[in-house]
Amino acid sequence: MDALPLSEPGANLPAPTVHASLRGVTRIYPGSPPVHALGPIDLDLAKGEFFAVIGPSGCGKSTLLDVLAGLSAASDGQVTFEGKPVAGNVPEGVGVVFQEDASFPWLSVSDNVAFGLRRAGVDPAEIKRRVDYAVGFMGLRDFARAFPMQLSGGMRQRVCIARTLVMQPRLILLDEPFGALDQQTRLLMGDELLRLWRETQATVLLITHALDEAAMLSDRVGAMSARPGRFVDLVETGWPRDRDSTLVAEAGFGALTARLWSHLRAESIKAIGGGRA
Amino acid sequence: MSATVAAPARVRRTTRRNFDQLLIVLVLLACWQGAYEYAGSVAVTSPAGTVAYAASMLGQMWFWGDVGATAIAFAYSLLIASVLGVALGLALGLWRFAADVTEPVLAALYTIPKVTLYPVILLLFGLGLSAKVAFGVIHGVIPITLFTLSAVKGLPPVLLRTARAMRLSPVQTILWVLTPAVLPEIFTGLRVGFSLTLLGVLIGEMFASQRGLGFLIINGINLHNVPLTTAVVLVIVLAAIGANVALLAADRHLRRQR
What does R_g of chain B's alpha carbons equal in angstroms? Predict the structure, then answer.
């Protein structure tokens, strides 16, 4: 790995500048009755920060990601990315990885990864350079010519991550990307994710159900309430930037997950309609 | 290890399948020969006699003139049915409300015996190529539309969300994501549409045309030229089987990647 073509030349080290923000954001789905899915939410994501969101099922985590990505418009409030308003369209510089397998089954791994670059009219030599690097970075070099159906679920998810990475996003939004994977694969994929976060120096927002994943990967974790989703706690993890899954053995890891669980347990009981918290 | 075990098993399966297919062909030929023995040459010619007649017919210029007439009508019909069917299927599939309204109507139309519409087609298009093409199109367009529509409705929504996340325009999404994603199902629709369009063109030629293979069949029946009728049917069946085998192979190739 001699070059880092996944990040823009001169990409900065994390600085405490606001990269993306949500101000009083709500999302209400029209209908009868209308569904108040989210908010009001206030959140600032610092440039280069790794932020994880946990919350009970149906609390609006994915809605939060959709609104921040521009895939869905906020019903109220303001969303900005790099100081510009996000209004119903995905801004340049934002990459999204979904929970479901979004690899294109008719394209090989290489062609999947190159898809966005080709559509953007990037120079073929540059496409090859970025794709070769991303495919190697995600451990898919031996499968570059394979089709998604020949890959495992984890490998397909890596294809989707690589396809997002080659576009050099400055804000990466991940909607439970490892949700369908087994525990040990999730931990290892988490290590990969941390590695690419360090290399690209992008800002990352990760939606997850897994407390250990959120606690291990993030600089900050936001715990959301039952619907309509609001942040009930924002926890600074205090982990060094150069970290990996061995963190789970750290003394503070258990206390961190216990704190997150205390919120998640209470909100999950509310979400399923229980009376005790 | 598994590959070395799997290879002979695959060869055995292929051999068995080829043997079964050959057996079916032999049974059909035996039935044909039996029908000939039972009814005599006033109803059907023997397999050997039909092959001999067909071979001599292939050397006649008039026969190729009729083949050309059918081929032209079929090519126009298939082109129109395919373009119209795929475009309609994509549009309806993307517009969910329209799909919910039109799908049952199309399915009902699909079951109507199209030959009952033939008088209307004749009044609208007159005798000749345009009527044949119209009749071919109404046979082929509905299954192609239904297959395409069903494929678009069944498309995983995450692919369309991915297209949005990649900032593709609606047209780019249709060209670069939607169409390739549903291509195998579209191709299956085209394969079914191919057979039905050919059927429509041949029926059109049988009822109102002076040229084409359908006309040769009906002319053979009217003149009680049993060898001609049977030989033309044999040529059509063999051509249709050949085309279907090729389309099926292409269909399987497309699906193998999914």
Answer: 22
Domain ranges of chain B: 61-257
| Residue B212 pLDDT exceeds 70 | yes
The CA distance from A217 to A274, in Å, is 31
Residue A78 corresponds to which tokens in the numbers above? 């303001």
Q: Is B142 helix (H, G, I), strand (E, B) or coil?
A: helix
Closest CA to A222 of A10, A104, A45, A47: A45
pLDDT of residue A13: 42
Q: Is CATH 1.10.3720.10 correct for B61-257?
A: yes
User: Using a CB-CB distance cutoff of 8 angstroms, which residues of chain B are in contact with residue A147?
Assistant: 257
User: Which of B155, B158, B175 would you mutate first to test chain A, the one with the most A CBs within 10 A?
Assistant: B158
Q: What is the pTM of this model?
A: 0.76
Q: What backbone phi and psi angles, to 5 degrees, belong to B128?
A: 115, -160
Contact B146, B110 (CB under 8 A): yes
H or E, element range at B140: helix B129-153
Cβ A274 vs Cβ A61: under 8 Å: no
Chain B residues touching residue A106 (CB < 8 angstroms): 180-181, 183, 257-258
Spell out which residues of chain A touch residue B183, defining contact as CB-CB under 8 Å: 106
